Amino acid sequence: MNRIDATFDKLRAVGRTALIPYITAGDPSPAATSPLMHALTEAGADVIELGVPFSDPMADGPVVQRASERALALGVSLADVLDMVARFRERDTACPVVLMGYANPIEAMGLEAFADRARAAGVDGVIVVDYPPEEAGGLAQLLDARGIAPIFLLSPTTPETRMVDVARLARGYVYYVSLKGVTGAGHLDTADVIAHLAEIRRHVSLPVGVGFGIRDATSAQAIAAHADAVVIGSRLIQEIESGPAETAAARAAAWLGTIRSAVDTVVKQAA
User: Fold this and answer.
1) Which residue among 15, 81, 130, 200 sits deepest, i.e. has the most Cβ atoms within 10 Å of its Cβ?
2) DSSP labels for 199-246?
């Protein structure tokens, strides 16, 4: 069983919501990424989304863009990101790792080569922001054949027909983008999120994670009461960039711990 499926099954059995932090690989430094991932799991992360630095992002707000720029300035490539996952796996064989990025680096490596290297590194899922389901069938098939979950984004403007396409291809979980904008922007409308979650669940049986706009314990709690997972990125990266690189892991873990505690106050009916 894929580690993502096992994690959600375990959490569902005890009525807990998954906490999924997002960080950019190579920020604040390539050497710091694996220790940072370990610190986040120790602080309560159930899944880690690891961003692949990219020079021309579509969905990333200014905070995530800065993190990508810092990593790119240090020469971090997709191959380096896979090496970072492999280093993380030397100590942690349990926490699922999901790569999140854009099509260009994957296509430059080659779809099959990427799928093979991702499996060898210990990747559990892949989100390609600019691969809609209509264009992702080839990569999704390659990933699925290797036990890696192709994960897709849904948004407030996703039509019903695309939800059906996502339901056919997706594995692991789906990621609901709660705002009509980039990461870290706007005000989270919980009532609107709840309504869209109900619509998504009419078509998609996988767990649904919610991200874009969750910035504190209050918003995390509000979403945790209804979603299967809370995804948080920009605010966490702000902690990473707020001080010296050598203490970034400690700061990020301390802050994520407050979100973990808040999410765990929400007890849902166990399956």
Assistant:
1) 81
2) HHHTT--S-EEEESS--SHHHHHHHHTTSSEEEE-HHHHHHHHTS-GG
Could you give phi then psi for residue 259, rounded to 5 degrees?
Answer: -70, -40
239 is catalytic: no
Separation between Cα atoms, residue 187 and residue 48, nearest integer Å: 24
The verdict on whether omega for the bond into residue 28 sits within 30 degrees of 0, i.e. cis, is yes
| Residues with Cβ within 8 Å of residue 125, at least 6 apart in sequence | 2, 4, 47, 96, 97, 98, 99, 148, 149, 150, 151, 171, 172, 173
- Chain-centre distance for alpha carbon 186: 19
Phi, psi of 171 (to 5 degrees): -135, 165
- Start-end of H helices in the chain: 3-14, 30-42, 62-73, 78-89, 103-109, 111-121, 137-145, 160-169, 190-201, 217-224, 234-241, 248-263
60 flagged as catalytic: yes
> Which residue among the candidates 5, 27, 49, 228 is catalytic per the annotation?
49
Fold classification of 3-263 (topology level): TIM Barrel (3.20.20)
Q: Catalytic pick from 5, 27, 46, 60?
A: 60
Q: What is the pTM of this model?
A: 0.94
Selection from 124, 120, 103 nearest residue 50 by Cα: 124
pLDDT tens digits, the chain, 271 residues: what are they? 799 999 999 999 999 999 999 999 999 999 999 999 999 999 999 999 999 999 988 768 899 999 999 999 999 999 999 999 999 999 999 999 999 999 999 999 999 999 999 999 999 999 999 999 999 999 999 999 999 999 999 999 999 999 999 999 999 999 999 865 444 445 677 889 999 999 999 999 999 999 988 889 999 999 999 999 999 999 999 999 999 999 999 999 999 999 999 999 997 755 4
